[in-house]
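Q: I'm writing up a methods section and want to include an example of the input and output format. Could you take the sequence below and give the corresponding predicted structure tokens, formatted cleanly so I can copy it straight into the document?
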Amino acid sequence: MKIERADVIWNYSATLMRMASAVIILPLMLHMLSGEEFGLWTVMIELYTMINLLDFGFNPTFTRAVTYVISGAKELKKTGFTPIEGAVDGSISYPLLKGIILAMKRYYSIVALFMLALLFSLGVWYINNILTGYTGDIKIARIVWFAYGILMCYQFFTFYYDALLVGRGMIRKSRQIIVISQSVYIVLASVLLLCGYGIISLVIGQLCSTLINRFLARRTFYDKDTKRELLKVGGSKSWREILVTLFSTAYKSGISAVSVEFTKGLVPLIGALYIPLSVMGSYGITKRIISLAAALATAWFVAYYPKLINKQVHNLSSEVKHIYIKANLIALGIFCALIAIIVPTGNIALAFIGSEAYLLPVTITILFFVSSLFEVTTYFSTSVLMSRNEVPHYKAQAVTALFTILLLYLGLEFFDYGVSYIVLLPLFTQLAYQYWRWTYKVWVELNITKRDILYELNMLPNSLRKTKAKR
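A: Here is the clean output for your methods example:
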């Protein structure tokens, strides 16, 4: 599997398009929406993150399964994989690939229906609670809430397209689709906001963007050759057996993902029940900027992750080490640069555009950045572990999450610690174990030394200028 520089560039382009949403849409939102409306949208974005937990680890598991098949695997195992010696890329088991696709379709259709039921049950209770004391148009707020909820159900129903494209190594085309769909969102949402349609502009923009994204993704994956081979197969491996096989790893990834979002996504949702939406607006804008920084820091690794899995399948640990170290160095450089730029100038820029919400205090904002950097480096480490179809960190992550939620409730319910507590609590609970344990494990298993790091650091400027990445 070959990843070219163009794949990385397009991956960064897709990330930058998401950042363009902050550069273009966010100032318009801050200028055209009230503090309460912006706080409501922040809660909805966090809800979208939480809804993705219903994937329960199947998306990364499906992605790895597709990459295994594309790399030459003829079977899927519940744990680990059978290394392939001398296999040629392109030796694809289409019956197995077809079975994986059917398994994905069945799984996501069932979960999407479950999500729809949740929206019109628990969703009703939640929106009633957070709109208590809301001074804006409550009818519009409810319409936006349920329209966005239905859109999330459709997004989830078609979630597997990204797994197919990334798993197949089609990073460039996948990111081109994101650039196109994000451009539609930015243009449409901006025009509607300027025309005075308020928060509903964002939902309409997201709807059109999603429909275009899914249409292009389907056409891209099912090219003429792929359709011909899948049709030629006729039958397929049992999708039920594939789901059972993948579940043994997926549920562990799911527990880990749920736990991470408990400490990252559920925290602000609970906080919104105790902290005014206007204050949550400041939290939301700070988190949005830091999330974009994290996306930019992980873009290179995400582009090369299918290749890393391929190298694992072919038992090339030195190549895995190379990708892992380089990803960490790139992430560290990006975070340092962004902290130096955003911390001193962020509020000046927000004041210039007439924002009603500002960044959190400087010290808290810096610690927010640091927490995100730890999260990114831990993500790299656990991704290396999961590339072997193993998820050793899920139990510890679950314990950490439960401990964090308990402390969150006690701090907000009985001590009124406020928004700073929401930032600092996840950082310190994760530092106790998660943020160092799995990085240490990867360093030991890959035998990473100071010489390796210095070598990659010296080679980094040259490697970033290469026209193609090494195989």
